[in-house]
Design goal:
By secondary structure, this protein is mainly alpha-helical. Helices cover about 75% and strands about 0% of the residues. The chain has one domain (about 10-205, about 225-415): MFS general substrate transporter like domains (Growth Hormone, Chain: A, Up-down Bundle), CATH 1.20.1250.20.
Length: about 425
């Protein structure tokens, strides 16, 4: 039985905190990546413009390992906890960035909105790096599947709520009202890490900084060089390289199909942007709650590799069916089915992928940076896929894109690396 102040030593507190932090990410993602993207499409923005918005907002997440991985891995002792102090600070900056949306007026263009949201992504990606390092350092290996399911559920519930609520609010009241509600909903979530300590003896808040290092500059340079060598060594193995490529390929393939198909539903097939956002939200909610809850326990039981391979094959089948429906001329009438095939099964895929990545990166002093390199590969795939989606849609039929993505998932299933379940509790 855990006593004392709320901290990550308690399974209940860490489970709740990590879920709330991913709920925060989901709310912003639902607003920025779904509701806003569909709002821009309804206003006449092209597939290339919508893809550019998505790519810009996602760019800081691609740079996450370079920007923030070493900051968290080399974090020094602090009264608030070495990672938690960065988490609290970054979330405060993220909220300040969201407040900048008020300065844009009632109907700004995609570029101005993207510029403000890039600032939020910079701060939020630091918070995410600290969160993931805290997960790696506090969650036993036998609980990774359930923790992954909880964080995924938090993210998709937030995404679904953000997409549905803000799709309506953007159309009815404009950006200032949507920004005000976004701040109101996310601020309590951003305050959660103030209440849950990294260790029971940490202070809730502390303004003083950690004592400065007395090591000479040359010593710090040698330490940085050794850190870089350890990080490079971690990715020299065949399995690590394959997992890195797999992370990139998954989100790259999804973006190549999902971005132009969503734009086509609004601009070609006459769907309302709000209706599309609500459908996307509902599908994400279905996959990320009921599906993720059952799958998380299964991952802990059978191991992430078997679950990951099975879901990759299921994704290939889903995109194959989607391509067949589009090729048969049912893109408009079967739109909900196609969106479900292209979103629900891939949403479940991440429940198995996260434990695989954590097991591959949790060893060593560069674990946060290793983990963020894998995550950055996924984000890079999403950014490049979004950026290239418009050009590909101009030269390739949606059926061909869907079938190509299906083949890509089959290749990923065949190549999935054999990182095991692991039975030891996480190190600090």
């Amino acid at each position: 039985m855990h006593r004392g102040p709320p901290s990550l030593t308690s399974p209940g507190w860490r489970f709740g905190l990590f879920t709330l932090l991913y709920l925060y990410q989901g709310l912003v993602a639902g607003f920025a990546l779904t509701a806003l993207a569909n709002h821009f499409a309804a206003a006449g923005a092209s597939t290339a413009e919508v893809g550019r918005h998505l790519a810009l907002v996602g760019l800081p997440w691609v740079l996450q390992p370079l920007l923030w991985g070493p900051v968290i891995d080399r974090a020094t002792p602090h009264p608030m906890g070495p990672r938690r102090r960065w988490l609290v600070l970054s979330l405060a900056c993220a909220q300040a960035s969201l407040a900048g949306l008020f300065l844009l007026g009632q109907a700004p263009g995609p570029t101005a909105v993207s510029a403000v949201l890039v600032l939020h992504s910079l701060a939020a990606s630091l918070a995410d790096t600290a969160t993931d390092r805290m997960i790696a350092g506090s969650v036993p290996a036998g609980e990774l599947g359930r923790t992954s399911a909880a964080t995924r559920a938090g993210f998709v519930i937030g995404s679904a709520a953000g997409a549905a609520i803000f799709a309506w609010l953007l159309a009815a009241r404009g950006l200032p009202a949507a920004a005000g509600l976004l701040l109101a909903l996310t601020t309590p979530l951003a305050l959660a890490p103030v209440l849950v300590r990294e260790a029971p003896g940490d202070r809730l808040l502390a303004l003083r900084r950690a004592p400065p290092s007395r090591a000479p500059d040359r010593g710090r340079g040698l330490e940085a060089a050794a850190f870089a060598r350890r990080l490079l060594a971690a990715f020299r193995t065949r399995d690590a390289a394959i997992l890195l490529a797999l992370c990139f390929a998954i989100d790259f393939g999804l973006a190549l199909f999902q971005v132009p198909f969503a734009v086509a539903l609004v601009q070609v097939h006459g769907w309302e942007a709000g209706d599309l956002s609500r459908l996307q939200a509902g599908l994400a909610l279905l996959g990320g709650t009921l599906g993720a809850a059952g799958l998380g326990a299964a991952v802990d039981r059978i191991g992430p590799r078997r679950a990951l391979r099975a879901l990759l094959v299921a994704c290939a089948a889903a995109f194959g069916i989607a391509g067949a429906l589009i090729g048969a001329g049912f893109a408009a009438t079967a739109g909900p089915v196609i969106l479900g095939l292209a979103s629900v099964v891939p949403a479940l895929l991440y429940v198995a992928l996260l434990p695989t990545v954590l097991l591959a990166s949790r060893a060593g002093q560069a674990s946060a940076t290793q983990f963020q390199v894998y995550m950055a590969a996924m984000n890079l795939g999403d950014v490049l896929g979004s950026a290239l989606a418009g050009a590909l849609a101009a030269v390739a039929a949606p059926t061909l894109v869907a079938l190509a993505v299906a083949v890509l998932f089959l290749v990923c299933a065949r190549a999935a690396p054999p990182f095991g379940r692991g039975t030891e509790p996480a190190g600090g």
